[in-house]
Amino acid sequence: MAVFNSLRTDLPLITYETLAKDLIHLFEKQNLTHLPILHNELLVGMLPKESILESTPQDTVASLSYDLERYHVLPNVHWQEALETFGKFDTNILPVTDEKNQYLGYFSLIDFIHLFSETPFLKELGSFIVLERNDIDYSLSEISQIVESNQAKILGAFVSDMTNGKVQITLKIFGGGLSEILQTFRRYGYTIVLQKEDDLYLNQLKENSDYFEKYLTL
């Protein structure tokens, strides 16, 4: 996916001298969890919204610098790494810098949700399967072999849950006989947690995505 095409550059310059009162409105207008703080065009950190809400209007960013969180990505970041960074720092804004830490802009989490919706995992026709097995026993290569031995292809796969020694793997497959694939998984010791045809599952995913996007814009 063309991640760099999602780069945003619509935020004003925020430095150590910026007043807290000027950032409150910006946080509310942009619906962001953090704002990038710059010094001489270099990114020095990300200021969380909570710090501004707990400050006084005349506080400067410099007086809040101990709250700065430091994370960023490069323009050529892979979308999976970017999503991991969003989650790791519990943020909906990801600053982008060059190799010298010069600030270039930012990625928005909502844009990445839209990017993900354009992947074959969601766009192409197919069937969804959620498998479960002991976390020490499952093998992605084995899962792939089972699917392909039944004349089907995997359009996407990811670990969707790991709890109490169990792991759940969500697959989207295309082609082959779904019943035969499910039977083969059971023979290999996998539990079928969920199996749905494309339309129903996609509608549920869309509803969840719409809710998530609505939540992000509150």
UniProtKB/TrEMBL annotation:
What Pfam families does UniProt report for this protein, alphabetically? CBS
Name of this chain's protein = Acetoin utilization protein acuB
Q: Which SUPFAM superfamilies match?
A: CBS-domain pair
What residue stretches are annotated with the CBS domain? 8-54, 73-116
